[in-house]
Specification:
single chain; alpha+beta; globular; 4-stranded mixed sheet; Glutaredoxin; two-stranded antiparallel sheet
């Protein structure tokens, strides 16, 4: 795999999220969890999705990747995750089925992100954020401490949106 668009993931609704369908669009990939101190970041993620991508064919795609790898903070079924995210935060951006973002069963896109970003970019908790440019390369990454609607994250998003 050479870029983010080479991956597909099982969707939360049983479908497949084929990232090649978003080729040429910047991506924001986030490992998420429903029972985490950072869970309110779903609200910011929805804001970012609504502001930069939702209604445009070349705008930002936000992809949420639920994971139970940290503190077992995503114990629910796919239906429970979907209901929780929609009811509490109005999440309408694509979400994958639960994935491993570390360890021996790590999902391939996180193996790729690890190689692209290096040791420090490996998720150590929920809500790591990965900004992917229009060529499918990792442009920037942020720890859970950086909120999705913070100036730093939004600046990185605007930079990849404006690049051609």
């Amino acid at each position: 795999m050479t870029c983010a668009y080479d991956f597909s993931l099982p969707g939360l609704s049983g479908d497949t999220i084929d990232l090649s369908a978003y080729r040429g669009r910047p991506l924001l990939i986030v490992n998420t969890a429903s029972k985490c101190g950072f869970t309110p970041q779903y609200e910011d993620l929805q804001h970012v999705w609504s502001r930069y991508g939702r209604d445009t064919s070349d705008g930002l795609m936000v992809i949420g990747i639920p994971s139970n790898d940290f503190g077992e903070q995503e114990p629910g079924s796919a239906a429970e995750i979907k209901t929780f995210c929609y009811r509490n935060y109005g999440v309408s951006f694509p979400m994958t089925a639960k994935q491993h973002v570390r360890g021996p069963e790590i999902t391939p896109i996180f193996q790729w992100l690890d190689k692209q970003g290096g040791f420090l970019a490996r998720p150590r908790w929920n809500f790591y954020k990965y900004v992917i440019d229009r060529d499918g390369n990792l442009a920037n990454w942020f720890t859970p401490l950086a909120k999705p609607a913070s100036n730093r994250v939004e600046e990185a998003i605007r930079k990849v949106i404006l690049s051609n």
